[in-house]
Amino acid sequence: MAGSDPEKLMAKADKITKLSFTRWNADWRNASVLYEQAAVAFRLAKNYEKAKLAFEKASKGQEMLSSPWDAAKHMESAASMAKELGSWNEVSDLYRSASQYYIECGRSQPASDALAKGARAVAESLPEEAVRLYTDACEILEEDGKEQMAFDLYREAAGIYIKLEKYEDASAILLRWGLAADKCDAKNSQCKAYLSAILVYLFAHDFKQAEKCYNDCSQTDAFIGSDQFRAASKLLSAYREGDIEEIKRVAQTGAVSHLDNVIIKLARKLPTGELDVIKAEANEEVGDELDEDNLT
């Protein structure tokens, strides 16, 4: 019986979607069912390459039937098959396609989730692409006014940047998280994000940027008066004075201990770089004006 043979199911589905002199209309409705049955059978047999192809064809069928939600679901299944195969570029592409179908449905949350799944899948093999996926996932939620749903995505993106030693990019995404938190009145998350960004700059021995970041963040009411603000203030003062013990002490305080682990690890290594050089640079910067506009 053809029903149990995925190869025959695929052949039948291909046949009824191919136009010819005798077939003027493709039968996508029946073909989609056949492709899906074949995909499930291939997956059970651990033939992931053919399962991926069958899920992609099932997705195409649902697209032709104007059912982007089902098309997205099948595309996510195809992506999971690519993951089994270790085809990391395909994993990214397929999750992006799934996300696009969800956007067609007007569903920002699953669209963002699809990109985040892709990011997690490729994080080890393609960290740069993972960051792009996380960033795009954040944008989808930001555009729909759902910034609060993106908090974990900002955090994970920052973690990858830190792993890649791209500290400026890590600080930028942390500040973006802070702005998103500000929009949804999540003051604690906002303050944590700002302190995290300052710590990352300090870890990268960029006192000038750390101080500029501190000054910019201090324009927001939520940050002023917070534990995170006090910790940042004490840290910068200790750097200006070249006080290694005070830097180490502040890095052990509660305000720092409640940040994400990846940030705590950086903070516990402070001070990095030549403290005398940083101290001299810090004291040159004392008279700098505040820039109220740059929070991004």
Commentary on this structure:
It is a single chain. This protein has 296 residues and is mainly α. The chain has helices spanning 6-17, 28-44, 48-64, 68-85, 88-104, 108-122, 127-143, 151-163, 167-183, 187-203, 207-217, 227-241, 244-251, 254-257, 261-267, 275-284. Helix 4 packs antiparallel against helix 5 (88-104) and helix 12 runs antiparallel to helix 13. The model is unreliable at 287-293 (pLDDT under 50). Keywords: ER-Golgi transport, Membrane, Protein transport, Transport. Belongs to the SNAP family. It comes from Saponaria officinalis (Common soapwort). GO terms for molecular function: soluble NSF attachment protein activity; syntaxin binding.
Query: Beta-sheet strand percentage?
Result: under 5%
**How many H/I helices?**
16
**Got a strand count?**
0
List low-pLDDT spans.
Answer: 287-293
What's the quaternary structure here? single chain
Percent of residues in helical segments? over 70%
Measured between the Cα atoms of the first and last residue, the distance is 62 Å
Based on Cα principal axes, name the global outline.
elongated
Largest sheet: none
Mean pLDDT: 91
Structural class: mainly alpha
Subcellular location: Membrane
Membrane topology: Peripheral membrane protein
GO molecular function: soluble NSF attachment protein activity; syntaxin binding
Organism: Saponaria officinalis (Common soapwort)
